[in-house]
Amino acid sequence: MTKPAIHQFLASTIGSELTQEDLHHELMAHTQWQGRYRIIMKLGSRMPALDTEWQQPHAEVSGCESKAWLYHHQSDDGKHHFLADSESRIIKGLLVLILSACNHKHSSALAELDLESWFTELGLSAHLSPSRANGVAALIQTIKSLSEG
């Protein structure tokens, strides 16, 4: 098996129960970067790991320092659903942030998202290493490309 089953995409609570707005408030409640960093690390543990059989080269996001895998499914109602994983806890946490904004959304909603500005507002852009920032940009670009068709 090289791709998760459709029901696994639809079952993900990231983006439905765990929303961008909720995470925004949780992160902004901490004025220091260290507090936000701890939350991001904890978020990574909330993301279900992909089975190792799905950690395939065709699903790897190029441009990430650590290995990261991203799967996409567009349902009949036009919504985009994503599953992701990474070897890195910080990237897993950042993936939760990204997917909280992107998962279970229509193309039009995804086209309006400005995740780069959101990450800047949260203070993440200033604290990520250049290689991590490049990885985040690669993940965001991959999601945008997949959602555009």
Automatic annotation (TrEMBL):
Residues 26-145 form the Fe-S metabolism associated domain. InterPro entries: Fe-S_metab-assoc_dom. Belongs to the SufE family. This is SufE family protein. It comes from Ferrimonas aestuarii.
